[in-house]
Amino acid sequence: MSKRPYRHVAASMGVSLLALALTGCSSGGDPESVCTDAIAEHLGEVFTDVQITESIETPVAVDVRGTYAGGGGFACGLSLHPVTLEQALVFPFDGPMITVEP
Which residues contact 65 (CB under 8 A, 6 or more apart)? Predict the structure, then answer.
């Protein structure tokens, strides 16, 4: 018996998994951009000089945190596959917390 057919199957599976992984990574957008775009749409011109300070990704979700001009902060919870904003919290330097819903 030849083991050669199994090599072709393994190679085909490897190529298929690589294609699936590349497709999964590119769908839905960048979590950091999805987060900051939603907040910018809600806050307008106040949301400037944005800096991402933390981005934690798990197999099913991403948490993004950062700061913006004037000492304000923000945090977003996003689901993956596709990237979807679940909730964003904005902590202005001089006011109450703001919730941004999708």
Answer: 52, 53, 54, 55, 73, 74, 75, 76
Q: Which CATH class is domain 31-91?
A: alpha beta
pTM above 0.90, yes or no: no
Residue labelled with tokens 């904005």: 90
In DSSP notation, 14-51 reads HHHHHHHHHHHHHSS--HHHHHHHHHHHHHGGG--S-E
Q: Phi first, then psi: what are they for 96, rounded to 5°? A: -75, 160
Based on its alpha-carbon atoms, the radius of gyration of the chain, rounded to whole angstroms, reads: 20
Q: Name the residue ranges covered by the structural domains of the chain.
A: 31-91
Q: Measured between alpha carbons, how far is 10 from 17 in angstroms, rounded to an integer?
A: 10
pLDDT in tens, 60-84: 999 999 999 988 999 999 999 999 9
